[in-house]
């Protein structure tokens, strides 16, 4: 993708990876619109940064995306990049007698339907725009799951497959389709403890490495994947799936 001069909409731009990405793109001379559920948070992040704008979006509220699409079409018809990044994660214990599918349903609604709905809403605007790009955030867990996060990992595996098809279908439009597959990164995704978890990659280190890959166009098949995650990406091909699964999911 081109790294400057874009108008970029980032869902889930109020914290973690989305916010860091928004600030990095803004620093590189792009107009960036971030979305999130809290107006106060959006205002706080965008204050003093002309060219970084906040617009509300709650993927759980059906009309919210319709309203956002209308507002963006009016105020930013030059939009040429969508980053469908908003996502949630919850552990699920399917052996618990109280286990039900409510957490799974919320994950599917946000991580799968949220990305598909955002794409459906903005694809008509992006089509035929110069440098049009759709980027979505899956996860390195798309390739080998952590069994205590079953629906989360499955939602990311879904996105990996779906983005592959989207990329193929859009090859002549043309809209570039990129998949960000981060490793475990220090954000509040699974709770406040994750921000300081020493096992997680520091957010600034992840951003720096990922932006380098984007700048160099070093993302074969549209997959923006750190070197450290290549083993998981190719676990099946390299006949290492069981070994890597066992290492990630101790008995
Ligand atoms: N951190 C990791 O280890 C990791 C690894 C691989 C992939 N990822 C993926 O990276 C993406 C960003 O996660 P993160 O780690 O940066 O987590 P985060 O700090 O918790 O950020 C999540 C973002 O999603 C937004 N969001 C959540 N539910 C939403 C909803 N119903 N409607 C609208 N926006 C919603 C949040 O906005 P508001 O709360 O302000 O509404 C927030 O901006 C996710 O897709 C995640 O699965 C993260």
Quick structural summary:
The protein is of the alpha/beta class. Helix content is 42%, strand content 13%. It has a 7-stranded parallel sheet with strand order 3-2-1-4-5-6-7, sandwiched between helices.
Q: Helix and strand layout, with pairings?
A:
Layout lengths: L6 E5 L4 H12 L3 E6 L2 H8 L5 E5 L5 H14 L5 E4 L17 H25 L6 E5 L12 H20 L6 E5 L22 H14 L6 E2 L5 H4 L7 H8 L3
Parallel strand pairs: 1-2, 1-4, 2-3, 4-5, 5-6, 6-7
Helix pairs in contact: 1-6, 3-4, 4-5
Bound molecules: NADP nicotinamide-adenine-dinucleotide phosphate.
Model description:
A 7-stranded parallel β-sheet has the order 3-2-1-4-5-6-7, with helices on both faces. α3 (62-75) packs parallel to α4. The chain is globular. The protein is an alpha/beta fold and 251 residues long. α2 (39-46) links the parallel β2 (31-36) and β3 (52-56). The chain has helices at residues 16-27, 39-46, 62-75, 102-126, 150-169, 203-216, 230-233, 241-248; strands at 7-11, 31-36, 52-56, 81-84, 133-137, 176-180, 223-224. It has a single domain (7-248), classed as Rossmann fold (3-Layer(aba) Sandwich), CATH 3.40.50.720. It contains 8 helices and 7 strands. The structure holds NADP nicotinamide-adenine-dinucleotide phosphate. NADP nicotinamide-adenine-dinucleotide phosphate is lined by residues 12-18, 36-38, 41, 57-60, 85-89, 110, 137, 139, 182, 184-185, 187-189.
Which tags fit this structure?
251 residues; alpha/beta; Rossmann fold; 7 strands; binds NADP nicotinamide-adenine-dinucleotide phosphate
